[in-house]
Each structure stands twice: as structure tokens, then as C-alpha cells.
Amino acid sequence: MADAIIIGGGLGGLHAAHLLQERGLGYHLLEGSDRLGGRILSEQVDVAGGAPAGAYDLGPAWYWPTFQARMPALVAALGLRAFPQDVAGALVWEETPDSRTRFEGGAPSDGSMRVDGGLGAIVDGVAAGLDGGRVHLGTRVVAMRPAGDGVEVDAVDRAGTTSTHRAPRVITALPLRLLAHSIRLEPDPGPGVLAAWSGVPTWMAGQAKVVAVYDTPFWREDGLSGEARSRVGPLVEIHDATAPGGLPALTGFVGWPADARRQVGDQLMGAVVDQLSRLFGPRASTPVAVLHKDWATDPLVATGDDAAPLKTHPHYGGHPLPGGPWEGRLLLAGTEAAPGSGGYMEGALEASELAVGGMRKN
Ligand SMILES: Cc1cc2nc3c(=O)[nH]c(=O)nc-3n(C[C@H](O)[C@H](O)[C@H](O)COP(=O)(O)OP(=O)(O)OC[C@H]3O[C@@H](n4cnc5c(N)ncnc54)[C@H](O)[C@@H]3O)c2cc1C
């Protein structure tokens, strides 16, 4: 029997597995989807007949060494190359569909760093150090209950077959709201606990992100940084997303709420390319590829409650802990459980370190 079952193979779950392995503790990591990484998603672009054009981040793209310590340490430990977000050049501000202003001062650097190969390189790097036989993809946890000295966990595989896994404790490394909505805990972890977890917003779950890949960095030729802000949309915040050694690209966050995105459907990408042409000129109208991820439609990240856009970064870490028979057997990780850096990748690392904390072999 493993010392712990980890639910979720995002950065938090992978880091928990790494920490357990380092201590000589056994684990099984159950991941509902067919890939690892969760909200970290770097997509490769292959241009017809050519070499791969690069990896582009459709989830997180940055970490900030000025106020985060774990992420730079992990990047260094994995031997990955980090580089600063390119902000050199003018910023474009779009106030109305007919009014755009060019700010030569550009956007100030906020110290954000990207990773060569995309942040998926971190996921691949951590996963490569794990015992592959302990990592189970396509295994979605649906229920758990205290049993004997430990916990029993029911999971459903791709074929719909249910399996039951047992361990002295479980580490959940998924958003608290998703845990409350999608995994049946028998009995409840205490009065009001599920409702409180359900009230914890999942960071960026209501967002959608687009990457438009080009064969030339035409905006740089025009003295533009690729940074833009818009009150019009669909994109509200745009950045250069050029992959080192790959093709130039622009990336942006869609400002239209999840319901509006659903209503326009496939027309959204046309509206994005039109907007990029307004902001950066006619050469933006012919991308070689457009990548898109709507996180609000991913049932392994978002619930219906996440559809409303968040206005500010929530304060994380104030959630109640599981009580009664769950105490000490159900440990909460995942970035939304992090008291210091909740919401960020840094928080996913922090929460796993706290959850694994004093765990020893039984
Ligand atoms: C568009 C976007 C931009 C972002 N930008 C940044 C940024 O620039 N910098 C930054 O630091 N952070 C950013 N974030 C946040 C960052 O992605 C998260 O903080 C981090 O990836 C969370 O990791 P996690 O492991 O806690 O959770 P997740 O990555 O959500 O992992 C949870 C895992 O659990 C799995 N799972 C869910 N339910 C089940 C189940 N029932 N059974 C089994 N498995 C299950 C999921 O498939 C997933 O793999 C961004 C997020 C998004 C979406």
C-alpha cells in the first residue's frame, strides 16, 4: 500500500509526488485527464513541411523571481533556461474601436520571467523524475471515504470502470471549489466545510487565452513591443509570446466573459484576428496558426461558479480544514490552498510543501 494517494497531476500534485519520493515514501498519483500539467499547458506548433515552430503557453506564462523563491529554484534545478518577458518598444492602447494611442515609453517590465520550451517544460521535467508506474492518467476520482486507518478512493477510468485505491492519507492537489463540486466525501468533512471550499474561486478558471503565431515579428519592425491593452476586446491584455528558436507570436487574454464567448462560438477567433490587425497593422491578419484554450469549459479545472470573471486576486488560505474522521487523513494542496502565494504556480509548490510537511513512513 502507498503512503499517500495524490489527486491531481498539475504542478502541485507533481511536486507533492516529488517530495514524497525524495523522502522514500510511496504514492499513487491519480490524474483525471490524459495529460499532466493541469492549468499549465504549452502547445507545440508545427508549420507545414517545417521543423516545430515552438511551444506556446495557453495557461500560465510567467513567474516572478522578485517575490517568488520556489519557482526560480525549480527552474534552476531542472536545468531549464529562463528569460525575461520582452517589453521593449511601444505599447498600443485601444480605447474605442476607432481610437488607438501609441505609447512610446511602452510597458514597464514587472520582472516576469518565461521559460524556454514553455512552462510545460517544468511539468515534463518534474514528471521525468517520478516513477512512471505510480502516475495514473485518465483516472478521475469521484468519491472517497475514511476506512480502517486510512482512506478509500474511488476513481473512474476512460472506459468508465471504477477502481478503489487505499492509503493512510490522501493529498488533494486540485482547486478547492472543484474538490467540493466533483468528489463525494462520505461523510462530510465538517459543518459548512464543503460550502466554504465551494466559495474559494479557482484562479483564472473563467479565463480564455489565445496565441497567434506569425512568420515575422512585424510589430517589432514597427517599433512596437507587442504589448497592448484594450477596452474593446475581445482581447484586453496582449503580450509578445515569441518562442526562443521558434516563430514570433502574440498572446492575449480574452476579456469577454465565459457566457459571451459561448454565444459567439467559432466567431471569436475571427474577432481576435480582426482586433490584432487594428492594433498591429494588416500583417496581423494572416497568422500561420491560432491557438486557443477556454479554461471555463474544462471540467477538470472550472465549475459553473467560475464563469464570472474575477476582478481582483482573491486572498487564499483562509479555508477550513477537514475535521472529524478526515483529520490527518485528508491533506489539502493545490494553489488555492496556499496561504502565501495562492493562485500562482508558486502557490502550487507552497501548498504541496505544507501538505507533505511532517509526513513520515507509517
Ligand atoms: C490562463 C491562465 C494564466 C495563468 N497565468 C499564470 C502566470 O502567468 N503565473 C502563475 O504563477 N500562475 C498563472 N496561472 C495560475 C497557474 O496556472 C496555477 O496556479 C497552477 O498551474 C495551479 O496548479 P495546481 O496543481 O494547484 O492546479 P491545477 O493545475 O489545476 O491541477 C489540478 C489537476 O487536477 C486534475 N483533476 C481535477 N479533478 C480531478 C479528479 N476528480 N480526479 C483526478 N484528477 C483531477 C486536473 O486535471 C489537473 O491536472 C494561470 C492560469 C491560467 C488558467
Folded structure, characterized:
The chain is an alpha/beta fold and 362 residues long. It has 2 domains: 1-40 and 119-200 and 313-362, 3-Layer(bba) Sandwich (FAD/NAD(P)-binding domain); 41-118 and 204-302, Alpha-Beta Complex (Polyamine Oxidase, Chain A, domain 2), CATH 3.90.660.10. Helix content is 22%, strand content 28%. The strands form 5 sheets. The chain has a 7-stranded mixed beta sheet. A 5-stranded parallel beta sheet has the order 9-2-1-13-20, covered by helices on one side. Strands 12-11-10-14 form a 4-stranded mixed beta sheet, covered by helices on one side. The mean pLDDT is 95. The structure holds flavin-adenine dinucleotide. Flavin-adenine dinucleotide binds next to helix 1, strand 10, helix 4 and helix 9.
Order of helices and strands: EHEEEHEEEEHEEEEEHEHEHEEEHHEEH
For the biggest sheet, the summary is: 7 strands, mixed
Placed side by side, the strands forming the largest sheet appear as 7-6-16-17-18-15-19
- At the third CATH level, what is the topology name of the largest domain? Polyamine Oxidase, Chain A, domain 2
Question: How many β-strands, per DSSP?
Answer: 20
What spatial form do the alpha-carbon principal axes imply? elongated
What count of domains describes the coordinates?
2
Uncertain ranges: none
Distance from N terminus to C terminus (CA atoms, Å) equals 11 Å
CATH domain class name of the largest domain: Alpha Beta
What is the annotated CATH architecture of the largest domain?
A: Alpha-Beta Complex
Percent in helix: 10-25%
